[in-house]
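hey so i finally got around to running the thing on that chain from the lab meeting. sorry it took forever, my laptop kept dying and i had to restart like 3 times. anyway pasting the input first so we r on the same page abt which one it is
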Amino acid sequence: MQKASLNQIKLLRKLGQKKYREHERLFLVEGERAVEQVLENKLIEVHSVFIEETKADSYQLTADNFLLKKQIFNEISDTETPQGVIAVCRMPDETDPETLKNRTGVLIATDAIQDPGNLGTIIRTASWFGCKALLAGKGTVDIFNPKVVRSTAGATGSLEYCTGDLADLLKPLENSGWQVLLLDGNPGAEVISEINKTERIIIVIGNEANGISPKLLTAGRKRVMIPSYSDQKQVESLNAAIAAGIALWSVHN
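ok and heres what got predicted. didnt touch it at all, straight out
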């Protein structure tokens, strides 16, 4: 197994920043199980794998492997307790709402979801429920952020995705008959399990602190909510990723 070159180390350091990920069209996947999964499912191209030198005998991976000194690996790692393996992967190309118009199923849309753990869990959950794509609205954390990727638990690349202004992403889909459900706990929202479901549904998950953006509250879109079954008022709202999971379950039943 070869030692990583200086140029490779420079690249690894750069890929911690969004601007370099976008320029290089590469991103990092860290952790034993996550790397194993991206290698197994072959949904994204694995460019190379870097292993911390003291753990070289722990990994038998089907990719170009390179060794990193422990100190350098720890500098590059995004975790408190590194597992000793990082893969450099190629970003899948974005899809376009026009290519999704005539499909059926469920899409998940994020309206400025800012917590990487939330977004990663939403992606993982959406993949579990067979969503066709992710629409990542402006203000949403980068889906290739290392913390997001880690939180998907290997599901990165399992969904097609579009990024941009969410209002612009939704418009061509709505014009083609997609039903937009805005997950909103404010008064007047319908219980999501009680609505009439269509064969084309988009579930929009709002920002953790502010909920759905006012500009998305337009005619023809349904505000839906997940009812509480507790008499206690200590809990004001559900976590965004948990709410996404319940909503996805609801529209499939």
